[in-house]
Amino acid sequence: VMERVDGTVPPDVMPYTFGDNWLFDATPEQQRSLQDSTVEVLANLHGIESAEERFAFLAQDDPGATHLERRLNHARDWYDYAREGHRSSVVERLFAWLDDHLPADPGPTVVSWGDSRIGNIMYNDFRPCAVLDWEMAALGPRELDLAWLIYSHGVFETLASMFEVGGMPQFLQPEDVVATYESISGHTPSDLGFYLRFAAVQWCIVFVRTGLRGVHFGTEQMPDDLDDFIRHRPAVEQLLAEI
Q1: Catalytic option among 36, 115, 191, 227
Q2: Between the chain's N and C termini, which has fewer beta carbons within 10 Å?
Q3: Which domains does the chain have, with CATH numbers?
Q4: What pLDDT does residue 2 have?
């Protein structure tokens, strides 16, 4: 039985970037307090000592020489399951790039939360009071969680732009997140471009899976191009154009 915690969660439906919610309406100082204290949660989690020994049960059994490579292969297996025999050129182009740019030295192994986005945190007075949704927890490099935090906001920001509503362009900017994390942890994140693209491919798989599920239940029409299910496709195409 878990202890009860009272707090507020940034909304997913509609995304907090769309406006008309407590986070969007907060002052810049309050938004920055939430941002920095969230990064502090990651730094403290990653600071747990002897992670590989104490949390060996979180190691994934997918093939690979490192925890990062295993995470990548796990995502590839997930894509093969999610696509139901269809093909996504966007996903496969991202995987090809990731395979060619796998960091030679991923750095220290830490406990990786996995689904490290603000929609999985309860806040009280703009500071975290509960960290939720641990089903993606695993062992891996620090940058996995940092990139997921940054990119997940980017997905919502892209959707806000596409629908011409709201927008929080100043929030969770990569340079700010990295600087705060470095000041708290003493660790300088590296290869962030790789990890942001790894986050991107996983978000694409999420949208492919939910789109095909919608087709199954009759709430979606099957598009001619599977990539049309990727809701934030313009941002992904921009990432692909840069590689």
Answers
A1: 115
A2: N
A3: 16-241 (3.90.1200.10)
A4: 80
